[in-house]
Specification:
Blueprint lengths: L2 H19 L39 H13 L4 H11 L1 H9 L9 H19 L7 H6 L1 H25 L5 H31 L6 H12 L1 H14 L4 H10 L10 H27 L6 H4 L2 H14 L3 H31 L1
Amino acid sequence: MNEITESLAELGQGALTAKAAEPETGRDGHTHETVCLNCGTALVGSHCHACGQAAHVHRSLGAFFHDLLHGVFHFEGKIWRTLPLLAWRPGRLTREYIDGRRASYVSPIALFLFSVFLMFAAFHALESHEGAEAPAVRSGNFQQAIAASEKELAALRADRQTLKDRKADTEAIDRRIDSRQQEIEALKDTRSAIAENLPDRQSYSDFHQIDKAIRKFKKNPELAAYKLQTYAYKYSWALIPISVPFLWLLFPFSRRFHLYDHTVFVTYSLCFMTMLVILGMVLDAIGATGLLSVLFFLPPIHMYRQLRGAYGVGRFGAFWRTVLLGWFASTALVLFFVMIMAQISL
């Protein structure tokens, strides 16, 4: 069982244990008050009209786990109303949230943070660890070859000494010893040439920071890969401010649409793309690689439908904006990648 499954199992087990260990305050694990426990105002509904606190507060661990599941995963309705619209009618979801009809949907930033967390959790759960040590093994090939040759050389010298003690001919074994010594020297020279020239002189791009990051990858692949994942997760939110100016270029100087509209659009769009990546990882893990090619055509279709629904543009207007938006999205990803590589190179 992977770490995510174990964590969810432990969470569920904790909720059941808490329910069994503590008596219920109410059937739903909450108290039922007549006045607000925060400000003392008489209650007339599910929330205090003076301070906004919920009328019923939980006082059991079972209710605490219930609130945790509801707060994080929105099991009680919002997520199931949001995801179908995000997948099939993203423009309607974007427009309704912008216009203020928000109670039924998960907010774009909450959904984005959760989808990013889910993507990296799925990556760690599904990644193969079989080749994790391959870079280290390849980097140590020269050292292993040198060690093996030196061990063989020591054995040859011992055999030569035995022949010499017996006053036998050592000419043949001398040639083998000389050959092995030359081989060891050649291996050492090659290793030194790679160590001295490749990291310092080879150029991989026009950006110094990217070159520096790539050298770190070659020097310690495992550490660099860990840093890449950590920084990508930590700064994933930066994709939003990076992308918003590009979307603004599709509606320059528009009085109908503002930066807030574009931010909601971008955030919901990133949520869909992130979940598409998760789906791709799952399909690859179960061997359904034939369906991966289908996923390639979904992003432009989703962009087109979201543009039409969110901004109310016609088919032609949505089409040419989709083309530009695809190019803008690629540019934003490149900028994000450069930012992450710059962090790794520090």
